[in-house]
Amino acid sequence: LLSVESFTLDETLGRPFAADIRFTSAQQDIDLVSLLDRYALFSIHGPHPDAALFPDTPPQLLRRWRGVVSHAQRLSASRDEALYQVRVESQLARLAEGRFSRIFQQQTVPDIIETVLRRHGYRGHEVAWRLRPLFGQDPNPYPKLEFVTQYQESDLDFIHRLAEKAGLYYYLLT
Question: Which residues pair with 104 in a beta bridge?
């Protein structure tokens, strides 16, 4: 059984989230290497609104984050328990690994970003654009670009650069 002692969460519009979670366990020898690159779910529960009337009402889910364990360490140990810390990051953070050079021709910015995400295994339901032009604007504000270059840049940095230049942002539905 793991008991969360504390956590810090960095969640910003247009960036992958990262959560540093400290927890205790009676198990002194958790295999930390086996945790790396594994999917993790971190959730926060709070009292149900009806808990005062019905004390047996289970806690209510407030938020949840799905990600990948990118770092794990044992911080300390006593005779009874050990203190560990893991970092859970959005799977999107993995796009920061590696540097690539590519050329894209005759594609819109959303199409280019979708192409890059699909190369990393993202599928239809994971890549959903909700592009809504402002009232009175061109209904297709993202024209096909003649030539776009990615040069020795991580896919995450490339996506951020394109999105920011086009006025796009994203948030993660976890």
Answer: 148
Element (H, E) at 166: helix 155-166
All residues at 6 or more sequence positions from 83 whose CB lies less than 8 Å from its CB, including other chains: 5, 22, 23, 24, 74, 75, 76, 77
Query: CATH number of the domain that 136 lies in?
Result: 3.55.50.10
Given 62, 89, 116, which residue is the final one in a domain?
89
**Closest CA relative to residue 67, chosen from 86, 83, 46, 85:** 86
Of the candidates 134, 132, 122, the one whose C-alpha atom is nearest the C-alpha of residue 172 is: 122
* Per-10-residue mean pLDDT, the chain, length 174: 91 91 94 95 87 83 91 95 96 93 95 91 67 61 91 96 87 71
**What is the 8-class DSSP label of residue 42?**
E
Instruction: Quote the DSSP letter at residue 58.
Output: P
Strands (DSSP E) along the chain, which ranges?
2-10, 18-25, 39-46, 60-77, 82-89, 100-104, 148-153
Its domain, for residue 99, covers 95-166
As a whole number of Å, the CA-based R_g of the chain is: 21
pTM of the complete model: 0.79
Same domain, 75 and 114: no
